[in-house]
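Need residues for this backbone.
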């Protein structure tokens, strides 16, 4: 089953599938509230169904290569991470479901920035605490801008910034910058750049730059982009017992917990500790 409805219907439809033993692929975000997402995870665990949540950035060539470089240890000890995502989407009030809290769960943080949050979870695991501020500038119900601080225990921290009312961003533009003791890694949707002081992890000293085209791998069929094809193929293979998916309900629940924590931090003005 493929579920591509507005977010407020994700959990009810996915839960109905799971209760009947049906495998499902559901678009992101997982749901509109943390409580309902935890309930869905419980049912999926009990029924043992295959689930995939559509955080498609994990299948993009540059972000996959970034994961490989981080795992190589080329940067040395990681000290700081910054992440941004922006698009020219919202410049006037609208009645579209995308901009209503009841149907979308929130604004730019859950709707757009969750893509980058999922990547941070993939790269570094679930953080230990988050802080945040959000601002409604155009929308009546949801935030148009968001800023969050993120900490992974005592190891390192960073920040995330998101906006969907940013000029000159026809398509979403995202970037993750990782600062390490031996260099810096910058990952965008189209280009990846890494600078190393010393050769390490199989990568040379100095600058290495790779584009999406350099990293492209052929796919058997093309659906809106190679990343969507890879996502769909992974789901089909998992249903056939040929492997596992990268982002199932349990993995997507981590992103939901982070988003919820940032919203609570923005509301209370206090840093939120996340359950381990």
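Answer:
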């Amino acid at each position: 089953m493929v579920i591509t409805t507005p977010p407020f219907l994700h959990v009810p439809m996915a839960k109905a599938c799971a209760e009947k033993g049906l495998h499902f692929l559901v678009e992101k975000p997982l749901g509109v509230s943390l409580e309902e997402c935890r309930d869905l995870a419980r049912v999926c665990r009990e029924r043992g169904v295959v689930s995939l949540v559509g955080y498609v950035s994990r299948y993009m060539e540059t972000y996959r290569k970034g994961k490989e470089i981080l795992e190589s240890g080329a940067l040395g000890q990681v000290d700081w991470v910054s992440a941004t995502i922006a698009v020219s989407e919202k410049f006037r009030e609208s009645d579209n479901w995308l901009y209503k809290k009841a149907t979308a769960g929130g604004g730019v943080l859950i709707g757009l920035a969750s893509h980058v949050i999922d990547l941070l979870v993939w790269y570094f695991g679930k953080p230990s605490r988050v802080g945040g501020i959000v601002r409604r500038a155009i929308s009546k119900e949801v935030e148009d801008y968001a800023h969050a601080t993120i900490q992974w225990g005592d190891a390192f921290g960073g920040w995330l910034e998101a906006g969907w009312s940013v000029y000159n961003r026809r398509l979403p533009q995202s970037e993750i910058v990782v600062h390490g003791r031996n260099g810096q890694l910058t990952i965008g949707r189209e280009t990846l750049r890494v600078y190393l002081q010393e050769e390490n992890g199989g990568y040379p000293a100095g600058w290495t730059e790779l584009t999406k085209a350099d990293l492209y791998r052929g796919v058997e069929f093309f659906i809106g982009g190679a990343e969507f094809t890879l996502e769909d193929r992974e789901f089909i293979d998992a249903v056939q017992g040929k492997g596992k998916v990268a982002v199932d309900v349990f993995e997507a629940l981590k992103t939901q917990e982070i988003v919820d924590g940032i919203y609570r931090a923005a509301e209370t003005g206090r840093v939120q500790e996340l359950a381990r």
